[in-house]
Amino acid sequence: MTVNITHENAVAVVTVDNPPVNALSQALRQGLIEAVAELDADAAVKAVVLICAGRTFIAGADVNEFGKPPQPPHLPDVVTTIAAAKKPWVAAIHGSALGGGLEVALGCAYRVAVASASLGLPEVKLGIIPGAGGTVRLPRLIGPAAAVDLVTGGSPVGAKKAHALGLVDAIIDGDLRAGGIAFANDSAGKPVPQPISGRAVPAVEAGFWEGAEKAVAAKTKREVAPLRAFASVRNASETDFASAMAFERETFLELRGSEQAAALRHVFFAERAAPRPPELAGVAPRDMRSAAVIGGGTMGVGIAAALRDAGLPVILIERDAPAVERGLANIRAIFDGSVKRGRITQTVADDRLSGVTGSDDYGLLADTDLVIEAVFEDIAVKRAVFEKLSAVCRPDAVLATNTSYLDPTAISEGVSHPERFLGLHFFSPAHIMKLLEIVPTEETTPEVLATGFALARLLGKIPVRAGICDGFIGNRILKVTRAQAERLLLSGATPSAVDAAMRAFGLPMGPFEAQDLGGLDIAAFQRKAARERGEAPFAPVAERLCAIARFGQKSGGGWYDYTPGDRAPKPSETAAAIITEEAAGRPQRLWDEASIADAIILPMVNEATRILEERVALRSGDIDLVKIHGYGFPRWRGGPMHYAEARGLAEVVAVLDQLAAEGLADAPCDGLRQTVQTGGFAAIAG
Ligand code: 3HC
Ligand code: NAI
User: Fold this and answer.
1) Mean pLDDT of 307-336
2) Which of 129, 281, 412, 662 is the most exposed place for a label (fewest CB within 10 A)?
3) What is 3-257's CATH number?
4) What distance in Å separates the CA atoms of residue 92 and residue 101, rounded to the nearest whole number?
C-alpha cells in the first residue's frame, strides 16, 4: 500500500510508503485524497500526522510522469483537498521535502521537521516551475523576498533555516513520529490556523520586484524557468489566490513540455544512472579508509583536498623536502580559500590540514588503501613511481593514475598485482570539478572498478567510465573542438566571433579564451607527442603562436592580447596576421553565430558517436555528463548527445555532410548516419 493509516488515540498517522523517494505517483495522489475523505469522516480523529517511510519525506512529483499526459487526480487538487480537510494535518518531515512534496506540506495546517531535513522547490532545476501552489502559497507564508530566493534558485534550505523563515513550525528532536503525534495532540485543542490560501502577501518595498527580477536574470542567463518562476511569485503576490493558481498551473504545463525541461530531465536521470552502472551491480568495492597522493602539483593538491573534504586521512608524497613543503602550503591555500568564501570554518580547515601527512618517504604507504598518482605527465616518471608503490604497498591496495593522455595500460606495466590498477582522471581544480573519468585497463577487476565508483560517491563526484584512447572521453572530444575552432579561423571567422558564438550557445567561455586561460603549451606538448606517434594533429595557428611564446594569459598574450593586471581579452594583431597567412589560398565564407556553433558542436557529436561505437563510453548520457561537468556545456541543453537527438539526427547528418563538402569538418561516421534510422544513440550503446 502506498498510503497507510494507523491510529494513536485521537491522532491518525498517514504513512506514505512509495520507495525509493516517495515521489507523488498517480496512486499516491489518489491515496492521499482518499485518506482525507476517510479521516474527515472519522469522528474519533482530532488531528492527522502525515509522515513518510524510508529515507525521505515526499521528494516531489514523479519525474517519470513528466513526459506523459497528466493523470488525475492532479497535484494542485490533492493539496487543496488536504488544505480543506476538517482536521488539522501536520506534515512530519525527514530527509527532503522537495517540489510537490513541499507543496503537499504547504497544504497541511502545520509543518514539523527533524533538524537534518531539508525543504525546497527545485523545479527550476528541471526546467519547470512549481505546479501545485508553491509559488502562490510560499509568498503568503514566508513573504515575497524569501519566496523568490527559494523558488528561483531551486536550492533547498535546512530545517533550522526553514524554521527561522516560518516555513516550519517546530523542529523535532528525537523520534519524528512520536514528536509529530505530540505536536498534533497539542494542536488538536487549538483553533486551526487560517489556511495559507486565505492569507495576504506581506507588502514589499518600492522597487523590490524590479531589483529582484534583474538579479534573477543576471544569474540564470538563458535558462527559461527561473524568470518564469519569478513571474509566478510576483503575480501571486499581486493577485488573488485562485487567479494566481491558474497562472502558475498554466506556466507549469507549458514549461513541462519545453525543450529545456526535456534536456534537464535527461541530465537528472543521467546523473542518477552514472554512479550505478548495471555492469557493476552486486560488485562490492574494496574498503577505503586511508588514501595517499603522489605529486603535490596542481592536480595532486586538489585531489588531496577533495579526499580530506570527504574525511579520509591523506599522505602526500613529493620528491624532496622543499617539494613536500610547497605541496602542503598549496593544500593550506585551498582550505584557506574555502574559509574566505565562507564554505568552512577555520577550525574545520585546521582539522582538514592536520589530516594530511607530507613526506618524501614511500615507506609510509605500507598500509594505505588507495594511492592516486599525479606526478609529471611522463611515462618513465610514472612507471618509476608505480615500481616503488608495488614494492611498499599492500597487495590489495588500489593504485590509480591521474594521467590525462598517457595509456594507463602502459603505465601499469611492471605493477605487481595489476588487477588493482586503474585510471582516475580528475579535472582541474580537482576539489571543485564534479567530473571523474574512471578508466579500467583490461586487467582491472570489477571490484577495483567498483572502488573507483565508490570513491566518486564518497567525494561527491559524477563518475563516468571511460575506455582507453588518447584523451579518454572528454579530452578526445576537446581535441576535435579545438581543431574545428582553427578550421573556422582559416575560413573567415575571427577568434572573438567564435568565442562570442559559443558563449551565445551557452558555454561559459569560447575555445580561444579557454586556451588563453589554461595555457597553449599543454596542448602543444600533446601535439608533439602525437607527431612522435606518427599522427598529424591540426593546429597550424596555435603552433605558430607557441613558436613565438604566446602561451596565453600567463605570457601576456596568446589568441588575444592582455594588458598587465587585466584578464579581459583584446583582439591581437599578431594573431590576426598569423591567421591571415595560414588562411591564404583557402576558400573564405561568412560565418554567423548559428553556423559557427554548428561547426563546433556537431563535429563533437560525430567524435562522440565514434567514442560510443568503440565503447570508450558505454552510454550517450555519460558523454553528456562529461561535457556538462568537465567542460561547461550548458546543462539546459542536455549535453551534446541530447542536443543532437533533440535537434534531429537527420539534420545533424545533413549539416555535417555540408561542412565536409566544404572541407570544414569530417563527414559523419557510419554510426551517426545509422542513428537517423534507429532514432537515437541508444542502439549504438546497447
Ligand atoms: N521522481 C522520480 N524518481 C525520482 C525522483 C522523482 N522526483 N527523485 C528521485 N528519484 C529516483 C532516482 O531516479 C533514483 O532512482 P534509481 O534508484 O532507480 O536510480 C532514486 O529515486 C534515488 O534517487 P537518488 O539517487 O537521487 O537518491 P538520494 O538519496 O541521493 O537523493 C533526493 C534523494 C534528494 C530526493 C534526490 O533524489 C532528489 O533531489 N530528487 C529530485 C527531487 C525533485 O527534483 N523534486 C521536484 C520534482 S518536480 C515537482 O515536484 C513538480 C511539482 O511542483 C508539481
Ligand atoms: P604539476 O607539474 O603541477 O605537478 C606534478 C608534481 O609531481 C610536481 O609537484 C612534482 O614535484 C611531482 N613529482 C614529480 N615526480 C615525482 C615523484 N617521482 N615522486 C613524487 N612527486 C613527484 O602537474 P599537474 O598539472 O598536477 O599534473 C599531474 C598529472 O595530472 C599529470 O599526469 C597530468 O597530465 C594530469 N592532469 C592534469 C590536469 C591539469 O589540468 N593540470 C588535469 C587532469 C590530469
Assistant:
1) 97
2) 281
3) 3.90.226.10
4) 11
Q: Model confidence over 92-143: pLDDT tens digits? A: 999 999 999 999 999 999 999 999 999 999 999 999 999 999 999 999 999 9
Tell me the torsion sign for CA atoms 218, 223, 229, 231: positive
Alpha helices, H only, 46-143: 75-83, 100-107, 134-142
What was the pLDDT predicted at 684?
84
Please give the Cα distance from 103 to 138 (Å, whole number): 9
Q: How far apart are CA 36 and CA 42, in angstroms?
A: 10
Task: Please tell me the distance between residue 373's alpha carbon and the centre of ligand 2 in angstroms.
Answer: 8
Residue to mutate (ligand 2; options 294, 299, 328, 461; most atoms within 8 A of CB): 299
pLDDT of residue 544: 97
Enumerate residues lining ligand 2, CB below 6 A.
Answer: 294-300, 317-319, 323, 374-377, 381, 385, 402-404, 426-428
Cell numbers standing for residue 131: 505546479
| 486 is annotated as an active-site residue | no
pLDDT at position 529 over 90:
no
Instruction: Name the pLDDT band for 189 (thresholds 50, 70, 90).
Output: confident
Q: Residue 574 and residue 581: Cα distance in Å, rounded?
A: 11
Instruction: Give pLDDT tens digits for 422-441.
Output: 999 999 999 999 999 999 99
Q: What is the dihedral sign for C-alpha 338, 344, 347, 348?
A: negative
3-state secondary structure of 207: coil
| pLDDT tens digits along 449-507 | 999 999 999 999 999 999 999 999 999 999 999 999 999 999 999 999 999 999 999 99
Atom 10 of ligand 1, nearest CA residue = 21
**Rounded CA gap, 439 and 425, in Å?**
8
- Residue 404 alpha carbon, nearest atom of ligand 2: 34
CATH 3.40.50.970 fits 474-685, yes or no: no
pLDDT of 65: 86
Identify the helix (H) or strand (E) that includes residue 421.
Answer: strand 421-426
The two beta strands, 47-52 and 89-93, are parallel
d(CA 163, CA 145): 16
pLDDT higher than 90, residue 446:
yes
- The ranges assigned to domains in the chain are 3-257, 288-465, 474-685
What are phi and psi for residue 371, nearest 5 degrees?
-125, 130
User: Is residue 123 a contact partner of residue 65, using CB atoms and an 8 Å limit?
Assistant: no
Contact in structure between 237 and 611 (CB atoms under 8 Å):
no
- Candidates 586, 493, 594, 578; CA nearest to 539 is 578
| 103 in active site | yes
Question: What is the dotted CATH code of the domain comprising 288-465?
Answer: 3.40.50.720
| Average pLDDT of the residues in 540-569 | 95
